Amino acid sequence: MSVIIFIIILSALIIVHELGHFLVAKRFGIRVDEFGLGFPPRAKRLFIWKDTPFTLNWLPFGGFVKIFGENPAEKTEILSPDNFQSKRRGIQASVLVAGVVGNFMFAWLLISLGFITGLPAPESLSLPLENAHTVITVVLPASPAASVGIKSGDTVVSLSRNGVSASLLPEEVSAFIAQSMEPLIFEVERSGQISKKTVVPKEGIVPDRPAVGISMDVIGIVKLPPHKAIWYGLKTTSELTLLTGQAIGTFILEAMGGRADLSSVTGPVGIVGMVGDARELGLAYLLTFTALLSINLTVINLLPLPALDGGRLLVVGIEAMSRRSIPPRIFNMLNTVGFVLLIILMLVITVQDVRHLF
What domains appear along the chain, each with residue ranges and CATH number? Predict the structure, then answer.
């Protein structure tokens, strides 16, 4: 079931992204030859809207738009007014950035809907919280906490050692765990059920002190009227996008210095497991998870790497400053190299995900 939900979520995120490209391209009079739901081979043509055929394809992973003239390597009539290449650089950039704008707005919509129905949110976002509790947000794979079945999303009801109880603020819990290597008794709540978990801290997870492999935050429920939900939804989506950008930027800098830890990165296999966890916790958590994925796609697609929207934006920027087009042969070579590197990175991350399962 988790795999099916993951495919639905991923398809929705990609279709929203491609819809952004489609709408802005049509707004500026650029021809779109196809809007595909799923990937070829084609199953059937569904309908025609704005002179573009919408098709259903056999591979049910997302979708695509085929914009006339977007790929400079294709032989097209450059002087044709509905050709992507014939438009001003500013219009080309608008079409390219429209996909990530679509993902951002989708995350904004989901978070706003969540605030209307009641959405879990961390104290750090400065939102009006109700029923705040210390919640486990991250459980490291193969850690003492993971080995006893503690999961992200569990609420910490109590923590004790030898009959001595800890304060439940995240900082106090961390300090309590770090005091010794003796077994700890966690009482956690999940889906209304309370269970006890005995966890033995160990060294080496974090520097210079024992740990059990969890991160925590104070999380409560935010429930707002629609007009406030829309404003706070925009504010929260913007803050999360900035934080995601900073985190990805830090990871890239560490990778360039040879210090990046790929085990902390989650790929498709790991995300399927996270979907299962979010589904168990309820619709509100699933909405939050989908919004966070949409924000991640927003930031990642803006990276100036070939095969991503950010890479195409970089090309448009270079062409605008040099006042000349990059030769199709060089464009294709960069695109192919970028695509291959992304596939290799995804394979490495997937291998890490599979290793964490066993």
Answer: 2-116+289-357 (no CATH), 130-221 (2.30.42.10)
